[in-house]
Fold this protein.
Amino acid sequence: MNIREQALEITGASRGAGGDPASAMLGILSMPAAGMEVQRTAIVIVVGGAQYRVGSHRQFVQLARRLAGAGHPVLRFDLPGMGDSPGASVPFEQTAPHIGAAIDATVRASGAHRIVLWGLCDGASASLLYLQARRDARVAGLVLLNPWVRSEAGLARTRVKHYYRQRLLEPAFWRKLWAGGVGLKALRDLGRNLRSMRRKRPQSLSFQELMALAWQGFEGKTLLILSTRDVTAQEFAECLASDAPWRQAAQRPTVTRHDLQGADHTCSQPASQQEVEALTLRWLATLTR
């Protein structure tokens, strides 16, 4: 393994406006091998969901080591209550203090001048919410893999477009409908999803709207990767197609989009995972141009 790795204690996070001290978090910093040129752009992997710093099928370990092998410092860390970090777990909407502390620790330990936040699912969402909360000028780039924008209406819209539309074209569906049973249940489900699509939005800004605002205001570069076999990615693509703020943010020249053919949510197949790593490396090279 042509890299160096060290455990990093991450301190300095606080819990939002209350300022209650949070427990230290544990991270693993991957660095290029001794004697190798160290890039000034470091990557902080923001873990989402019920995951810790290793990731599904060691996704984050392999990503960190490949990027470090190319010269980039990379931090992957456990949020409170996950992996080896003590304390109560934190919802992804409230992780800004912890992401900020992880960036501080990465800059101190590696000497990096710029940070790229790399997130999968609600790790990608948390990255955008961090920018909305902090406007951190050190963050020069984002890599967003299958961002989480789940809402009842959004999920209903995605199901209607990507599932029910196809089902209505299938002869087997109509045979079941005439025979009773499954077909009638499918129609009832379709009606429920159509009603969900039409429900009014709440008055206060949702986390999805805060994400869109953050992305619109972000002046750095973004690599957006969407898996073609993932409902979460389909929901995000629906936002881009149907919601003006999301569409305007995605159409800027600073955004590079790549649809990952045949990939699932976590890119569990080795070929998909390796493609994500290669895409990230090629895109990182554009940050220094």
About this structure: The two ends are 28 Å apart (CA to CA). The beta strands are 3-10, 14-15, 20-21, 25-32, 41-46, 74-77, 114-120, 139-145, 221-227, 255-260. Residues 16-20 have pLDDT under 50 and may be disordered. Residues 59 and 273 are 7 Å apart (CA to CA).
